[in-house]
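Tokens for chain A. Residues wanted.
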């Protein structure tokens, strides 16, 4: 027969809540088995620039996205159809860490193309009959300016490569005014999702339809990005989860006097720039089609992400749910580069490119890195550890009985929870609800039905007396 003491002891069994372990940085995928032939150019630029592979990878993917988006789409699930191939990329690094230098190395191929196109445009415009419409301005690379300027380029040319060296430029300075943030959010979110259609209203009587592709690569200093990560508008509307975000490490590699860059590295960089030009200049529309095996791998990855989105890391839910499409876009871009690299200096003749199992594995390898980096940044640098918040809430319940234990000592009434948590409509209130739910799941607070002095049924949560809390 079970004793009364044993029954009481069983009632108060709980699972300890421990502060989440801090996630450490993991290396950027750089082996051939991880990302295919892109690894060769990654090593070449790393040897030249002496910078972290993550920063170099961000720049390489930005350039490839800008080149591929012009005439390519990806079909990874047949029921979804053709999807855009453009990437949104956010690199967090302080001034002087080499962002601009690496971008200039990797962007050179597209910069040369734009320079040639602009020269032809100016020559043609100089001899143009003023009575006839002039040629279209071919400029497609933006390094600074406004979101309206980016939209003008997309409307004119059908595509734009926004390689912004400082995020604060788009937000109107370090103050990052809310109206500038909202304008940016509403525009880029629809361009990422649909790729070929968005509507922007300049005024009540002047609607504007913009169709086209946008590669959005921006660098931001930590003090600018931090408020964005903690801003519920950016996070909950799903704008930040559309970006491949990372914070590269600062490498302190010394250069040796008289150090010479190996010719194979300069040759690899030159070949990369020429391949990006070949991809950009291909004038037919092509679909990157997933094979049956590649589609199955992406399906398994989607199911994994669906489970991850239900984990206690609520801050990565929207990122995980978009991870499959991000992985497919990455795989398609790597597939295009691989097939051009194999045919170099020529280009693939077929109108349909194949997305193989290896391409998909490479895209997923990159996406798992970005998922880890996003989780690390969200839970440590820019977010709140929900476990710590739950422990703080439990201490508050114990240390301030006049606020929480209004009806009976050792118990929290439903009224107290409504007043102190559920009525809070702010982002803080939402986090406290999550913390409260965690306390209930781990039996720090134990649900109990009871009757008051007038025999009315009430609900309350007993404070687990076996858990010791430090008094303030």
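Reply:
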């Amino acid at each position: 027969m079970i004793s009364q003491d044993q029954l009481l002891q069983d009632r108060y069994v709980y699972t300890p809540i421990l502060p989440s372990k801090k996630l450490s940085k993991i290396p950027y995928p750089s082996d051939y088995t991880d990302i295919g032939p892109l690894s060769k150019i990654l090593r070449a630029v790393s040897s030249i620039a002496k910078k972290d592979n993550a920063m170099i990878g961000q720049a390489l993917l930005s350039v490839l996205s800008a080149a591929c988006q012009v005439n390519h789409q990806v079909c990874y699930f047949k029921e979804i159809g053709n999807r855009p191939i453009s990437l949104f990329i956010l690199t967090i690094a302080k001034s002087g860490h080499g962002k601009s230098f690496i971008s200039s190395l990797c962007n050179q191929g597209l910069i040369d193309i734009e320079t040639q196109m602009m020269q032809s445009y100016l020559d043609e415009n100089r001899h143009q009959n003023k009575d006839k419409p002039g040629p279209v301005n071919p400029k497609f690379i933006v390094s600074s300016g406004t979101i309206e300027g980016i939209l003008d380029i997309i409307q004119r040319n059908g595509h734009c490569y926004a390689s912004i060296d400082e995020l604060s430029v788009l937000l109107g300075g370090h103050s990052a005014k809310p109206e500038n943030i909202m304008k940016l959010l509403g525009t880029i979110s629809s361009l990422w999702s649909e790729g070929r259609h968005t509507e922007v209203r300049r005024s009540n009587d002047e609607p504007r339809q913009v169709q086209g592709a946008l590669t959005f690569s921006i660098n931001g200093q930590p003090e600018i990005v931090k408020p964005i990560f903690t801003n519920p508008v950016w996070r909950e509307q799903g704008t930040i989860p559309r970006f491949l975000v990372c914070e590269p490490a600062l490498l302190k590699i010394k250069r040796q006097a008289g150090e010479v860059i190996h010719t194979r590295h300069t040759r690899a960089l030159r070949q990369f720039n020429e391949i990006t030009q070949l991809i950009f200049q291909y004038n037919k529309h092509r679909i990157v089609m997933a094979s049956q095996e590649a589609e199955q791998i992406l399906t398994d990855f989607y199911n994994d992400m669906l489970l991850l989105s239900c984990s206690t890391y609520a801050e990565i839910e929207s990122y995980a749910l978009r991870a499959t499409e991000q992985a497919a876009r990455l795989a398609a871009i790597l597939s295009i580069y691989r097939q051009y690299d194999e045919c170099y200096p020529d280009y693939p003749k077929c109108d349909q490119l194949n997305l193989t199992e290896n391409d998909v594995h490479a895209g997923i390898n990159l996406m798992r890195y970005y998922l880890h980096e996003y989780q690390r940044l969200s839970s440590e640098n820019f977010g709140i550890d929900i476990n710590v918040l739950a422990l703080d809430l439990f201490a508050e319940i114990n240390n301030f009985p006049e606020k929480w234990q209004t009806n009976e000592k050792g118990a929290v009434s439903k009224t107290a929870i409504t007043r102190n948590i559920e009525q809070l409509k702010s982002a803080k209130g939402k986090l406290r609800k999550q913390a409260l739910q965690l306390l209930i799941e781990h039996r720090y607070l134990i649900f109990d039905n009871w009757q008051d002095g007038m025999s009315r049924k009430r609900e309350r949560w007993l404070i687990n007396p076996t858990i010791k809390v430090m008094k303030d």
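The chain has two domains: 32-123+135-251+261-381, 385-463. The longest strand covers residues 213-220.
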